[in-house]
């Protein structure tokens, strides 16, 4: 019995906002999602609480931390996306690289432009991602400012992942969490590609992710000080949307990482 409990994992989700009503609306401050063992649960909940209370984007007046049991039979696995980095120095070059990357994953140029514009024109950052048709660029979800929030994911072996990130000189929560999220998204049924840049004012890096081309890191996708960031998921025309959204929001995914992360540079 005890052994069984020790083998059980928990999904832990945190989201923090400011100025909403009962957590609806307002400004999104921060969010995080992990899958942790029962032994690590308490410490993880505390560290998420601390993170919500000390975020650069401001003081949260609403913090939601949700803990759910994950049974072993609920878990599916996907591979970590391979990583390559673009050598760009300005926002213009970065967005040009993002456009070219998206087009190479078979997102249409019109839809790719819609995606870049959809993020850059946001008045405030969203909690989740926008789903856009990869041909027409039309918004497909009806979730407004909330968007689709990808949760219930982590790496299968956190210590190994941490070692390989450090060996590749990839430091900090942003890249660790983005690699996991992008790997889950790329494995989802009906996804063609993802475009992302951070909403943290000091973090200007973003990426284009896809199963076809991997995690294509782009060092500059916005100006420093800009509080607007976001995510667009480009969807195959005619994809089964309820199935896709269920996978993104509910399917428990552990990302399998290798011993080493190779970072290649592209120009
Ligand atoms: N599901 C869907 N959308 C999300 C999620 C999620 N779990 N988390 C964040 N978003 C959306 C939301 O609109 C945020 O405003 C936006 O993405 C940016 O979130 O160095 O830090 O957590 O290689 O600020 C990418 C580059 C960093 C990392 C991305 O995003 C690197 C980042 P942030
Ligand atoms: Mg952020």
- Label the structural class: alpha/beta
Query: Would you tell me the overall average pLDDT?
Result: 94
Radius of gyration: 18 Å
Topology, number of strands = 13
The biggest sheet amounts to: 7 strands, mixed
Q: What general form does the structure show?
A: globular
Oligomeric state as shown: single chain
How many domains, as an integer? 2
**Ends distance:** 55 Å
Helix content: 25-40%
Strand content: 25-35%
Low-confidence stretches: 1-5
* Ligands, ions, cofactors: pimeloyl-AMP, magnesium ion
Instruction: Figure out the total of helices.
Output: 7
Widest sheet, order of strands = 6-11-8-9-10-5-13
H-E order: HEEHEEEHHEEHHEEEEHEE
Structure description:
The chain has 267 residues and is of the alpha/beta class. It has two domains: 2-70, no CATH class; 77-266, no CATH class. The chain contains seven helices and 13 strands. The protein has a seven-stranded mixed β-sheet, with helices on both faces. A three-stranded antiparallel β-sheet has the order 2-1-3, covered by helices on one side. Strand 9 and strand 10 (214-218) form a beta hairpin. Helix 3 crosses helix 4. The longest helix is centred in the middle third of the chain and has 14 residues, at 91-104. It is globular and about 45 Å long. The N and C termini lie far apart (55 Å). Residues 1-5 have low confidence and may be disordered. Pimeloyl-AMP is lined by residues 28, 31, 33, 125-126, 128-129, 149-151, 174-175, 178, 181, 196, 198-200, 203, 205-207, 217, 229-231.
